[in-house]
C-alpha cells in the first residue's frame, strides 16, 4: 500500500475532474470543479459563524454527506462519514473518522479510508461495519475503480489493540463484489453495502443498492469467510418505480419493547425493517416485514407502501441514513445526513456543508405499524438552564415567548391538549391528502379551526422571519387526522435557500391523547419529534435577522379555538466538543 500522503495527493489530482470523459459509466453525483475551494482561504472565524451548529456533528470544515460504518469497538463509538478534504462541495470523497465515548463529544482522526487501490482509486463511497464473532470489525464499502465502475471492497483495522482504530488496511484482492457481463449488474448503480448478517446456514449475507431501469433493488451476496462473496439467485427485495436504492439498511426489531437487536439476531418475536434511500427524491423510506432466512426473501407487511409515499424516518432533510447495534447499551442507533438548504455559493463562502442529525434510538411502535425514534439520552448532558411552565391555556390567535433559554441552541418539549375543542375541526378534503402539499398550502399564517399551534423557532423580533413547527387537526371519515408541519416559507429573507415546507400525518388520536412536540434547535437546524417519536421533521434554515442573541422562541396558536399547554420544558443547550 502507498503511504497516505502520496495516496491523498494522487487522489486529489485523479478525482478533481472525475466526470470528464465518462460515457457509458456515469458518476452519480456532480462535481462542482470550479467551486473547489483550497484549504488556504479558510478563515479563523469559521467556528463563530451564525449558522455553524453547536451540538450537531460536523468536521472543522468542508463538505460531508453520508454517515458510514458507525459502530462501537472496545467501548469507543466510531463514526465515519463521506468527506471532501478539499472543499465545501461534493468531490474527492474519503472516509472522515471521529471517535467518542458518549456519541455527543467527538475526537477527530485522520481519514480512515481513501483511494489507494485500482478498486477504489476514483472514490471511496459509502459502506457499513460488521463486527465478526470474536469482535473484529470489517468494513465493506463502495469503491469507484479505475474504469469508473462501482465495486464493493473490504477494509479492516491494522491494529486491533488500538481502540481508536486510526489505521485501516485494505484486502489485497479487492474488489470482493463487482459487476460483470454475466451478472448484468449496472456498474453505475451498484453501491452502499449494508452491515452483514449471519444466516442459519452460517453464511454471511449483505445487501448492495441497485436498479434495473426504474426497479429499485437490494442485491444480495453471500459469503462463508467474509472475503469471497457470491451473488444470490435473486435480490432480497425490489420495488417498482422507486429508482436506484442507495444506502439500504436491513435490521431486526423486537416486537415488544425498545431494546435493540444485533443485526444477525433472529427469533419469533422479531420483525425486520428494510430502509432505502431514494436518489430521485432524496428521501429515506422504510417498510416493516418478515424475513425468510432460508429463501432469503423479505416480505413487507400488508399495508406497507413502497417508495416515496411510504413511511419515512424523517419528512424533512434527512438522507442516506444508517443504523448500528450499540452492544454497550443494547439499542439500535440511527445516523442520518442533514444536507444544507442553502445554495452552493453560500456553502462555499461559509466553508462547510452538511451536518449529521443527532443520533436517534429506533424501535418498533407497539402497533407494529411503524418505528419510533428519539434522540439518544446522552444528548441531555448538554442541557443547561431550564425553563418550566405550569399548565396554561393558549387562546386562538395568541403566542407566548419562551424566555430564559438561548433560543438559537435549545431543546424544547411541550404537550397540547385539544379534546375540549374537537367540534371545531375542519373536514379534510380529498385534494389535501398529500400532507406536504397541505402544509405548504396552509402555512402558519392560515388560521384554521383547530390549529396551527406549535413553535415559532428562529423567530426575529418583528416576526419578519420564523420557522413554524405546528399541528393542525382535521376530521376525516369520522376520525381525526393530525397534521404536523415544518413551514420554511418565512424562515429567511434570503430568497436563495430551499424553502420547501414539509408535512406528515401523525398517527395520534387527539380525543384520547395529548399531542407532544419536541424540537432540538441548533443555529441552522431544527429537528422536531411529535407523538413521542412517531413522526420526525428536520429542517435547515438560515435566517438573516434571527441570528445569535436576536433569535426568539415562541409557542403559538393561530387557530380560532384555544389549546391547553399541559407542560412545557425548555433548556439551553451547551456546545458539544466536536471539532
Ligand atoms: C497497537 O495499539 C496499541 C494500543 O494503542 C499500541 O500500544 C501498540 O504499539 C500498537 N501496535 C502497533 C504495531 O502499532
Ligand atoms: C444504470 O445506472 C445509471 C445510473 O443510475 C442509470 O442512469 C441507467 O439508466 C442505468 N441503466 C439501467 C438499464 O437501469
Ligand atoms: C442537498 O441540498 C441541495 C440544496 O437544497 C439540493 O439541491 C440537493 O438536492 C440536496 N441533496 C440531498 C441528497 O438532499
Ligand atoms: C396568524 O394568522 C394571521 C392571520 O392570517 C397572520 O397575519 C399571522 O401572520 C399569523 N401568525 C403567524 C405566526 O403565522
Ligand atoms: C421560495 O423559493 C422560491 C424559489 O426560490 C421563491 O420563488 C419563493 O419566492 C420563495 N418563497 C418564499 C415565501 O420565500
TrEMBL record:
Residues 56-375 form the Glycosyl hydrolase family 32 N-terminal domain. Keywords: Glycosidase, Hydrolase, Signal. This is Beta-fructofuranosidase. PANTHER family: BETA-FRUCTOFURANOSIDASE, INSOLUBLE ISOENZYME CWINV1-RELATED (PTHR31953). The keyword Phosphoprotein does not apply. SUPFAM superfamilies: Arabinanase/levansucrase/invertase, Concanavalin A-like lectins/glucanases. Residues 1-27 form the signal peptide. It comes from the Eukaryota. Belongs to the glycosyl hydrolase 32 family. Residues 378-571 form the Glycosyl hydrolase family 32 C-terminal domain.
Amino acid at each position: 500500500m502507498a503511504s497516505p500522503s502520496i495516496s491523498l495527493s494522487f487522489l486529489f489530482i485523479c478525482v478533481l475532474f472525475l466526470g470528464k470523459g465518462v460515457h457509458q459509466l456515469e458518476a452519480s453525483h456532480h462535481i462542482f470543479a470550479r467551486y473547489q475551494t483550497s484549504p488556504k482561504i479558510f478563515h479563523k472565524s469559521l467556528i463563530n459563524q451564525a449558522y455553524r451548529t453547536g451540538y450537531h456533528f460536523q468536521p472543522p470544515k468542508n463538505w460531508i454527506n453520508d454517515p458510514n460504518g458507525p459502530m462501537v469497538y472496545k467501548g469507543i463509538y466510531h463514526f465515519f462519514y463521506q468527506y471532501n478534504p478539499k472543499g465545501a462541495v461534493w468531490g474527492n470523497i474519503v472516509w472522515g473518522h471521529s471517535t467518542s465515548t458518549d456519541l455527543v463529544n467527538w475526537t477527530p482522526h485522520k481519514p480512515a479510508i481513501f483511494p489507494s487501490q485500482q478498486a477504489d482509486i476514483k472514490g471511496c463511497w459509502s459502506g457499513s461495519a460488521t463486527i465478526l464473532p470474536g469482535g473484529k470489525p470489517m468494513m465493506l464499502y463502495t469503491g469507484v475503480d479505475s474504469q469508473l465502475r462501482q465495486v464493493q471492497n473490504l477494509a479492516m483495522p491494522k491494529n486491533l489493540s488500538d481502540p481508536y482504530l486510526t489505521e485501516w488496511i485494505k484486502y489485497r484482492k479487492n474488489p470482493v463484489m463487482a459487476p460483470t457481463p454475466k451478472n448484468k449488474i449496472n456498474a453505475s448503480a451498484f453501491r452502499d453495502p449494508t452491515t452483514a448478517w449471519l444466516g442459519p446456514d452460517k453464511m454471511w449475507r449483505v445487501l448492495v443498492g441497485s436498479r434495473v431501469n426504474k426497479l429499485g433493488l437490494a442485491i444480495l451476496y453471500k459469503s462463508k469467510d467474509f472475503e469471497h462473496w457470491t451473488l444470490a439467485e435473486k435480490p432480497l427485495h425490489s420495488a417498482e418505480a422507486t429508482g436506484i436504492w442507495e444506502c439500504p439498511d436491513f435490521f431486526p426489531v423486537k416486537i415488544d419493547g425498545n431494546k435493540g437487536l444485533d443485526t444477525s439476531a433472529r427469533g419469533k418475536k422479531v420483525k425486520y425493517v428494510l430502509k432505502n434511500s431514494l436518489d430521485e427524491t432524496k428521501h429515506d423510506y422504510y417498510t416493516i416485514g418478515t424475513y425468510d432466512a432460508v429463501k432469503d426473501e423479505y416480505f413487507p407487511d400488508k399495508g406497507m407502501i413502497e417508495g416515496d409515499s411510504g413511511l419515512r424516518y424523517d419528512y424533512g432533510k434527512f438522507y442516506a441514513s444508517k443504523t448500528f447495534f450499540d452492544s454497550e447499551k443494547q439499542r439500535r442507533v440511527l445516523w442520518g445526513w442533514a444536507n444544507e438548504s442553502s445554495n452552493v455559493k453560500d456553502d462555499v463562502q461559509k466553508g462547510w456543508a452538511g451536518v449529521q442529525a443527532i443520533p436517534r434510538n429506533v424501535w418498533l411502535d407497539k402497533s407494529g405499524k411503524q418505528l419510533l425514534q428519539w434522540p439518544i439520552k446522552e444528548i441531555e448532558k448538554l442541557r443547561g438552564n431550564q425553563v418550566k411552565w405550569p399548565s396554561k391555556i393558549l387562546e386562538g390567535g395568541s403566542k407566548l415567548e419562551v424566555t430564559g433559554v438561548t433560543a438559537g441552541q435549545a431543546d424544547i418539549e411541550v404537550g397540547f391538549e385539544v379534546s375540549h375543542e374537537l367540534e371545531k375541526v375542519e373536514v379534510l378534503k380529498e385534494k389535501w391528502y398529500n400532507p406536504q402539499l397541505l402544509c405548504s398550502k396552509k402555512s402558519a399564517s392560515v388560521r384554521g379551526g383547530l390549529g396551527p399551534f406549535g413553535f415559532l423557532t428562529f423567530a426575529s423580533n418583528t416576526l419578519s422571519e420564523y420557522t413554524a413547527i405546528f399541528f393542525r387537526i382535521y376530521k376525516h371519515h369520522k376520525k381525526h387526522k393530525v397534521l404536523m408541519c415544518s413551514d420554511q416559507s418565512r424562515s429567511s429573507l434570503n430568497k436563495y435557500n430551499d424553502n420547501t415546507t414539509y408535512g406528515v400525518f401523525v398517527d395520534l388520536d387527539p380525543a384520547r391523547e395529548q399531542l407532544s412536540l419536541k424540537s432540538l434547535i441548533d443555529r441552522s437546524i431544527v429537528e422536531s419529534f411529535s407523538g413521542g417519536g412517531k413522526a420526525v421533521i428536520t429542517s435547515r434554515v438560515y435566517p438573516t435577522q434571527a441570528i445569535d442573541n436576536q433569535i426568539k422562541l415562541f409557542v403559538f396558536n393561530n387557530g380560532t379555538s384555544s389549546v391547553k399547554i399541559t407542560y412545557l420544558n425548555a433548556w439551553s443547550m451547551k456546545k458539544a466538543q466536536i471539532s
